[in-house]
Specification:
Strand order of the largest sheet: 5-4-1-6-7-8
Radius of gyration: 17 Å
Structural class: alpha/beta
Distance between the termini: 35 Å
Order of helices and strands: HEHEEHEHEHEHEHEHHH
CATH superfamily: HAD superfamily/HAD-like
CATH class: Alpha Beta
Number of domains: 1
Helix content: 40-55%
Oligomer: single chain
Number of strands: 8
CATH architecture: 3-Layer(aba) Sandwich
Shape: globular
């Protein structure tokens, strides 16, 4: 765990895949051919918390979907890259654009969460790589962390919480959600 916290402490940007990470990986079509996805509210609280403490977020996904754009806006994602099958090239281009805008974020400053073969090169290029327990075995064999929760079920939140802990912000983040008496040990009976 100490090694994971150390890696998390260096993260300046969390980069996420969508299908299998932010969602459960299922693509559901209704009778009219409209695609739907389900997202975890817990993940959204985590990504918003990262933003509160100055840690950037990005999505890189192979598919293009208006619902992903809507969800990215709802949960405070800073950068959205859709329709990109080569995740490594998309990540490199995003980092190049950020550096051109004055950001000093490199691949080693990033955490990346992905679950399938198209994510492997991007996972291998970053300072902190994470996946979900139902990811492809070739992905699991190449990451620093496998979450307890599956994609779409709070897995992103686990990584967000770890990043907050690594940066020393977790207690402050939690303090915003609990009564002061809970923090200072005041008896509520």
């Amino acid at each position: 765990m100490k090694d994971l916290l150390e890696k998390a402490s260096k993260v300046k940007m969390l980069v996420l895949d969508v299908d299998g990470i932010l969602s459960d990986g299922k693509i559901i079509y209704d009778a009219n051919g409209v695609e739907t996805k389900a997202f975890s509210v817990q993940d959204g609280i985590g990504t918003k918390a990262l933003g509160k403490y100055g840690i950037k977020t990005a999505i890189i996904t192979g598919r293009t979907s208006p619902m992903v754009e809507k969800r990215a806006n709802e949960i405070g994602i800073d950068h959205l890259v859709q329709g990109r099958d080569d995740k490594l090239v998309a990540l490199q281009e995003l980092l190049k654009d950020l550096q051109a805008d004055g950001s000093n974020i490199s691949a080693q400053d990033c955490a990346y969460m992905g679950d399938d073969l198209p994510d492997i090169k991007a996972l291998q290029s970053v300072g902190f790589a994470a996946t979900v327990p139902n990811a492809h075995s070739e992905v699991i064999n190449r990451v620093d962390m496998v979450t307890t929760n599956a994609g779409g079920c709070g897995a992103v939140r686990e990584v967000c919480d770890l990043i907050l802990k690594g940066h020393g912000h977790y207690d402050d983040f939690i303090a915003g959600y609990v009564l002061k008496s809970d923090i200072d040990g005041t008896d509520r009976s």
